[in-house]
Amino acid sequence: MDNTTTHTPTTANMDNTTTHTPTTATTTATTTATTTVKTRDNKYTANHWIKYSNGKNKTNFWLFKILNLLSMEELATVRLTAHFFDYCWQLRIKKRCLHVPRDVQTLESANRLAFLVSTKLELCKINPLKIMIGKGVHQIVGNKRMKVTCSYIIFVGNDKDQTTVRGGFKVDNQQHVKFEELTITNQSGPRPGAGLSLTGIGTTVELLNCIVKRCGRAGMQVRGGATVRATQCEFRENGTAMDDIFLNGDGVYCSGANTKAILTDCTMHHNGRDGLFARNDAVVDLHGTNTSLDCNEFHGMYAFRGGAKINIHLPPSLVVSDRNVGDDRHQARGGSIANINPDGTFTHT
Q1: Roughly how many angstroms between the first and final C-alpha of the chain, as a whole number?
Q2: Residue 16 domain boundaries
Q3: Of 30, 143, 193, 195, which cross-links 215 as Cys (Cβ 3.0–4.6 Å)?
């Protein structure tokens, strides 16, 4: 029995469609079928967008040459037109890094996109999202405080002397938020406020090599059970400016039970009120021999009411607070300031 299959092509249509007539020789029956072959060029396939490109790997031509010319905002728009563009957008966000203004024009746009990325990727302490802020002045619209939209995010400036943010940041019930190499100022506008406002139990924030200056209120407010660690940061000239004097603004303000601030090698000077103010059970720990609280309009450090504590983990001989208009160290109504000795004992001042 011969089961050999033969194909006899014939041209039978005016549209030049090629038909194939398969013939199967068997002892029982002969079946004839006709199939039409048609080449598709679908705009939703990657081939449609890369078939005219050059190079050994055509996809790479688009990924690394053409699509790199688009900002993340532009790519987020065109990704809705084709699966290939959506694929490219997914690759970009997997880098976990957004550049301002290269990828997105403004900090607000980066902040909104960060929330979207946080819903697509699993961010964590070892794999956070970075927002890289370039040189120059970056304005938050209306000089308002921008609310950080997700946890595990780092805002990194080019250098604290080269990258300035006009406006403020608000972190409420977010964890592992970090600011590095930034100058933050928030004094303009009808209602100027704090440079950093950190609130909520469970909120954890870190600052490294930042300057917070010329804010309408405190440079940094820590309240409602939030925890902050600041290292090598400067809080200066905060408050309302009147005749080159700043009024009604603390360098760092801490309030509320479970609120904690760990300040290492930080300086608080020339502020409109106290360099450091702790109240209502807040606890502040000062570390580092470069710590100083000088030339403030009220007290250098002030622990006020309800078990507020300022713990100084430095040699008693080191002058930490000096040349303030009020007291260098002031405590009232249950607040306390103490030098913590290496053996764990303490001495109230």
Answers
A1: 110
A2: 5-34
A3: 195
| Mean of pLDDT values over 40-50 | 48
Q: What are phi and psi of 51, to 5 degrees?
A: -70, -20
Residues 292 and 310: their CA atoms lie apart, in Å, by 14
- Assess if residue 196 is contained within a domain: yes
Q: Could you report the per-residue pLDDT of 176-220, keeping only the tens digit for each?
A: 999 999 999 998 665 678 999 999 999 999 999 999 999 988 999
Nearest C-alpha neighbor of 32 from the set 24, 40, 44 = 24
From its phi and psi, is residue 323 left (phi > 0), alpha (psi between -120 and 50) or beta? left
Residue 110 lies in a domain: no
Asked if the structure places residue 90 within a domain, the reply is no
Beta pairing partners, 132: 99, 156
Q: Is the pTM of this model over 0.70?
A: yes
Asked if residue 273 and residue 139 are part of one domain, the reply reads: yes
Reading the block at residue 258, the tokens are: 């479970």
> Domain check: are 15 and 146 in the same one?
no
Determine the Cα–Cα distance for residues 124 and 107; give it in Å rounded to an integer. 21
pLDDT band at 261 (very low <50, low <70, confident <90, very high): very high
Integer Cα distance of 344 and 349 in angstroms: 16
Partners of 138 in beta bridges: 165
Q: Decide if 147 is inside a domain.
A: yes
Residue % of the chain over a pLDDT of 70: 76
210 & 333 share domain: yes
Q: What are the start-end ranges of the E strands in 181-297?
A: 183-185, 196-199, 204-208, 211-213, 220-223, 227-231, 234-236, 240-242, 245-247, 252-255, 260-264, 267-269, 276-279, 283-287, 292-294
DSSP 243: T
Does the structure show a pLDDT above 50 at 164? Answer: yes
Assigned token pair, 201: 């139990």
Q: How many domains does the chain have?
A: 2
